[in-house]
């Protein structure tokens, strides 16, 4: 086991480097970088407008930026160095967990992630826990009552929830219950109210939960179908195994068979995905949901970084998310052997 873990950790290095290298190479060819955007601002232009540079044309616009100013901007943003040297410097900094500084926020990427993470964590963790709390019992009930009216009715509801995109469902919830054309039961956006600091702690908790109802509902609805169907299929497969028929032939109560035998074996594929889903919940950032409900989280930060060509934020967040994702995948693989002793790694017998 320890040999397998060590090999997987070593494999993380080339995988991480490959992802960073591909992304770094792609963004070199994306037009409208930070230098071009700063030139447009200095020249009073608008995004997409062309600007001429004295001593070397950058376009045919009216305003002109001197070659010295352009060189200073390239030096400021680090573009005066060759791409390979910039990539090597970035990897060396990332190895020390120095994620660099944002071009536009004038903060370190680490500080930005730390500021935005609580919002995405709130959305991600509530979505994660509610998904498991609803889907596992519902999937078990559907498996036990397979083919019944309950199974058909819940299947239809789940299918409808799955086919509606979370953004559309969130928009419908806002119109119906967020002060749109019908009811004003829930706030339209934000994580807490403006006067949250002046509230007592019980009121703070109530206000926070009240703000999370609509975005969490929109996020959970799309996840219900996959987890519920997976739970149902796994339990159905176990219920139809020979040891269940043998237990019934021995006269064991159906409840004891379900809880003591079927439940333990059927939970293996569900539990093994728990570490990756739990860690991923800390970094869940739904761009559409955060934008719709005015939640300033990691999803919105990543979207703005891509649009503004804020390369340190793009690469820094990519490095953190990819590293955590690879570690979560390793934990999921290891959990197989913890939950099921029959599974071994590294050629163990």
TrEMBL record:
Transmembrane portions of the chain: 123-144, 156-186, 208-231, 270-293, 313-332
Keywords, alphabetical: Cell membrane, Membrane, Transmembrane, Transmembrane helix, Transport
Keyword Cell membrane: yes
Principal place of residence: membrane
Coiled coil: none
Domain ABC transmembrane type-1, chain residue ranges per copy: 117-332
Domain of life: Bacteria
InterPro entries found in the cross-reference section: MetI-like, MetI-like_sf
Entry membrane topology: Multi-pass membrane protein
Subcellular localization(s) per the UniProt record: Cell membrane
Cited PANTHER family: INNER MEMBRANE ABC TRANSPORTER, INNER MEMBRANE ABC TRANSPORTER PERMEASE PROTEIN YEJB
Family, similarity comment: Belongs to the binding-protein-dependent transport system permease family.
Name of the protein: ABC transporter permease subunit
Organism per entry: Uruburuella testudinis
């Amino acid at each position: 086991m320890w040999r397998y873990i060590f090999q997987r950790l070593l494999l993380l290095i080339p995988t991480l480097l490959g992802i960073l290298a591909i992304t770094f190479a792609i963004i070199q060819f994306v037009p409208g970088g930070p230098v071009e955007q700063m030139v447009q601002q200095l020249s009073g232009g608008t995004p997409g407008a062309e600007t001429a540079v004295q001593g070397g044309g950058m376009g045919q616009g009216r305003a002109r930026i001197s070659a010295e100013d352009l060189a200073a901007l390239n030096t400021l943003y680090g573009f005066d160095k060759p791409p390979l040297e910039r990539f090597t410097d970035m990897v060396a900094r990332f190895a020390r967990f120095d994620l660099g500084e944002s071009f536009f926020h004038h903060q370190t990427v680490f500080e930005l992630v730390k500021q935005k993470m609580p919002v995405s964590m709130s959305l991600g963790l509530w979505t994660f826990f509610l998904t498991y709390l609803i889907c596992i019992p519902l999937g078990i009930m559907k498996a036990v009552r397979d083919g019944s009216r309950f199974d058909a009715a819940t299947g239809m509801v789940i299918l409808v929830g799955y086919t509606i995109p979370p953004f559309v469902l969130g928009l419908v919830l806002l119109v119906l219950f967020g002060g749109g054309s019908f009811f004003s039961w829930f706030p339209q956006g934000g994580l807490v109210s403006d006067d949250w600091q002046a509230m007592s702690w019980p009121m703070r908790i109530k206000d926070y939960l009240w703000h999370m109802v609509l975005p969490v509902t929109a996020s959970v609805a799309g996840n219900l179908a996959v987890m519920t169907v997976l739970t149902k299929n796994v339990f159905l497969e176990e219920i139809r195994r020979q040891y269940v028929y043998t237990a019934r032939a021995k006269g064991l109560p159906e409840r004891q068979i379900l809880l003591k035998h079927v439940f333990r074996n059927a939970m293996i594929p569900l539990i093994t995905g728990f570490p990756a889903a739990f860690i991923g919940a800390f970094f869940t950032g739904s761009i559409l949901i955060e934008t719709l409900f005015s939640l300033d989280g990691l999803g919105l930060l990543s979207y703005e970084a891509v649009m503004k060509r804020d390369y340190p934020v793009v690469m820094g967040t990519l490095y953190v998310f990819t590293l955590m994702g690879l570690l979560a995948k390793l934990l999921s693989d290891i959990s197989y052997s913890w939950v099921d002793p029959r599974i071994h790694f590294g050629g163990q017998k």
